[in-house]
Design goal:
single chain; 231 residues; alpha/beta; 7-stranded mixed β-sheet; 6-stranded mixed β-sheet; 7 helices
Amino acid sequence: MSAKQIVPGVHSIALGGVNVFLVEGDDGLTLVDTGMPDSADKILAAMHGLGRQAQDVRHILITHLHTDHTGGLAAIKEATGATVVAHPATAAAIRAGQVWRPVQPGPGMLSKLIHRLFTSRNKPKPQSPVAVEREVADGEIVVNGIKAIHTPGHTVGHTSYLWPQHGGVLFVGDAASAMLSLGYMFIYEDLAEGQYSLSKLSGLSFEVACFSHGKALIGGAAARFRERFAE
């Protein structure tokens, strides 16, 4: 497992269907999301490949509650001792071990098929509760200049994060997908909220967009969002 540089100071770690990100700063490393329950060793191995140790991770930013984003949290937190940061609604779910709430399909036939697949399977099992030390509100600066952007829809507490370096690097989470092309996610707790959040992101300034699912957009990313999502 290796980390790939997106821009200087930002590395992506691909975990077989979901990406997590490392951001370098004066206050050590910040990890955005933690992957599935078996992801901790892979993330730590990728860090070692960069010459970094577990204790270099000082903050863990969580975008939302689903198990492909919080599954590795307990193990990563134990290994690093990092502070966990999340929106209050997400924090409450993590503390309760919750990983799932009812969802509806996003736009399009493929979303309906994927939604049917998700809802026909057994729901993910609850996880062990994990402490969340810091709850953040929309617009709050978290660490190293990274701003929390509340982007509900995919989940009620979904939060994207904007790092001001390199013209702006947006960690989209699951507010949007780039698996096939830039577009909506396949499932939402509230589709209307998700559409509003994408319009909100389209009004921001950023050159790079890093997605949990799909390849990063490097250069002109905000313009691509406006073309696709702006009302």
